[in-house]
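Q: Trace token order:
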Amino acid sequence: MLMATAQAFLSAELRRLEPAQDPAVAVTALNRYLCERPLGGRFMSLWVGVLMPDGALTFVDAGHGHWAAVRMGGEVSGPGAALESGGIPLGSTRTPGTQRRTLTLGAGDRVLVYSDGIVEQRGKGGSSSGARVSTMRSVAKPRHSRTSSGSSGRCPCTARG
């Protein structure tokens, strides 16, 4: 019930924003909403982004930490690449220090937001971080190819829940 309520609240808050307004405003409102309710010690992590037509991606990572920017050339950045964590989970404190970050995405760049189930997978020798790095390297491989006519083939963007 917590997730459904939070999702509905956040969706409504994001729709109220002006096109270039900071999504951290909506995330801060959600945190305030959660902190005003008896959650019984529960909290939630969240990653939310707003992508503009010019490739500017403004996002907030509130305790999720499982994302990576994958550039067309194969470079990977973000917590998924550096084994860092995100910000403070929502509902855990009234002042989470929610901050927005911005990336500029070019043609062929991707942002991956993934479940903690990925990082809980074990790699060779039982290392969880090895599986995480291995997964990021696998996903970072460029997905385009040149056809005989010289045009560049594209991999369609897919969102999975």
Q: What stands out?
A: The CA atoms of residues 31 and 95 lie 8 Å apart.
